[in-house]
Specification:
It is built from eleven helices and 13 strands. It is of the alpha/beta class. The structure holds uridine-5'-diphosphate-4-deoxy-4-fluoro-alpha-D-galactose.
C-alpha cells in the first residue's frame, strides 16, 4: 500500500514541484489548497509529468470544521507537508492581521487535527528570513534568530515555536522545519513553474518577465552594499532540489530516523551570489541582454546571506545538484512556455 502524504498548498510553486517528487518516490499525494495564489490546472501539469493526478480538496485551512472532516476521512495520512501560507513580505507589513490569522490559525488547525487523528509526521516550510542579517556567514542552524523585520517573517519564527512546543508537550508529533534560502527555477520539463500574480516581487520572475517583454526593465535595488561588487547577496537554489529535500524529510520522519522530536535544517547551496551575478547567469543561458537600472535600496533587504547547508548534507544526505545556470535556464524555459500558450 502506498503511504499517503498530505501536501497543503500543493498547487503552489514549491508545493507542486514537491508533489511531483513525492509521486516519483511512490507516495500517494493528497492536496489541500484554497487556490488563493494558484490554479487548479497545475494538477494537469503534475499529471503530465508523473502520470498521476493527485486528489485536490479546495478549502481554507483556517476552516477548522472542514479540516476536521477532511482528517476524519483521511486518518491514514502518514505525513503532512505544510506549504500553504501567505508569503509576500511587503504585503504583510500592510496587512499584519491577515498574515497572522492566515499563517498561524491554519498551522494550529493542522497540528490540532493531526493530534486528534494521531497523524505523527510534520514538515514545515520555514525561511532563512528567521536569521535576519546574520553576524557570521555562512549561517548555520544554531545562529541566533533576529527579531523579524516583517509580520511574514514573524509568522515563520512563531510558527517554528508553535511546532517546537507542540512536539515537546507529549512527543506525539515529530517535526522537521526546513529553512529555505532563495528557491528559483522551474521543472526541467517546463510543464510546471512559478506563476506570480501581478507584478513579481522576487528577482528571477522579474528578470524573466523583463526579458520576455512584459516588464520594461528590472530595477536593481542598490549597488552600494558592503559586498565585493556592491550588490546584495543571496543563496539561490533550484526548486527541484528544494522539492527533493521534502521527500528526504518525509522519508526520515516515516522511517523514524530523526534524532530529535523537532529538527531544523538549512536548505541552500552554500554559495552566495550577487544580484549582478544572477543577472549575468541569466544573460549567459538566455543569450539576451537584460534591460536593467540600478535604483535605491529596497527597505528591509538583508545585505548578504547564504547557507551553511552541511547539517542537511550530512544528516539528510541531501545536497543541491543544479547550478545557478541550470536553475536560470529552467526559469527562462518556463517563462517562454507559459507565454507561448497565453
Ligand atoms: N531584487 C532586485 N530587484 C527586484 C527584485 C529583487 O534587485 O525587482 C533583489 C533584492 O534586492 C535582493 C535579491 O534581488 O537583493 C533577491 O530578492 P527576492 O525578492 O527575490 O528575495 P528575498 O531574498 O528578498 O526574499 C526571499 C523570499 C522571502 C523570504 C526571504 C528570506 O521571497 O519570502 O527570501 O527568506 F522571506
Amino acid at each position: 500500500m502506498k503511504k499517503k502524504v498530505l501536501v497543503t498548498g500543493g498547487t503552489g510553486y514549491i508545493g507542486s514541484h514537491t508533489a511531483v517528487e513525492l509521486i516519483n518516490e511512490g507516495y500517494d499525494v493528497v492536496i489541500i489548497d484554497n487556490l488563493y495564489n494558484s490554479e487548479e490546472k497545475v494538477l494537469d501539469g503534475i499529471e503530465k509529468i508523473t502520470g498521476v493526478r493527485p486528489v485536490l480538496e479546495v478549502f481554507d485551512l483556517c476552516d477548522h470544521e472542514m479540516l476536521g472532516s477532511f482528517f476524519s476521512k483521511n486518518s491514514d495520512i502518514a505525513a503532512v507537508i505544510h506549504f500553504a501560507a501567505y508569503k509576500a513580505v511587503g504585503e504583510s507589513v500592510r496587512k499584519p492581521l491577515e498574515y497572522y490569522r492566515n499563517n498561524l490559525v491554519s498551522l494550529i488547525n493542522i497540528l490540532e487535527s493531526m493530534k486528534k487523528h494521531k497523524v505523527p509526521n510534520f514538515v514545515f516550510s520555514s525561511s532563512c528570513t528567521v536569521y535576519g542579517q546574520p553576524e557570521k556567514l555562512p549561517v548555520t542552524e544554531s545562529a541566533p534568530l533576529q527579531p523579524a523585520v516583517s509580520p511574514y517573517g514573524n509568522t515563520k519564527q512563531v510558527g517554528e515555536e508553535i511546532i517546537r512546543d507542540t512536539v515537546d508537550a507529549d512527543n506525539m508529533i515529530k517535526a522537521i522545519a526546513l529553512r529555505y534560502f532563495n528557491p528559483i527555477g522551474a521543472h526541467p520539463s517546463a510543464i510546471i513553474g512559478e506563476l506570480p500574480h501581478g507584478v513579481p516581487e522576487n528577482l528571477v520572475p522579474y528578470i524573466t518577465q523583463t526579458a520576455i517583454g512584459i516588464r520594461e526593465e528590472l530595477k536593481v535595488f542598490g549597488n552600494d552594499y558592503d559586498t565585493p561588487d556592491g550588490y546584495c547577496i543571496r543563496d539561490y537554489l533550484h526548486v527541484v532540489d528544494l522539492a527533493k529535500a521534502h521527500v528526504v524529510a518525509v522519508n526520515r520522519l516515516i522511517g523514524g530516523k530523526n534524532k530529535a522530536g523537532f529538527e531544523v535544517f538549512n536548505l541552500g547551496t552554500g554559495k552566495g551570489v550577487s544580484v549582478m551575478e544572477a543577472i549575468s547567469s541569466f544573460e549567459k543561458v538566455s543569450g539576451i541582454s537584460l534591460k536593467y537600472k540600478v535604483v535605491e535600496r529596497r527597505p528591509g533587504d538583508i545585505e548578504k546571506i547564504w547557507a551553511d547547508p552541511s547539517f542537511a548534507n550530512t544528516e539528510l544526505g541531501w545536497k543541491t545538484q543544479s547550478s545557478l545556470d541550470v536553475a536560470m535556464k529552467t526559469a527562462w524555459d518556463w517563462e517562454k512556455q507559459i507565454r507561448k500558450k497565453s
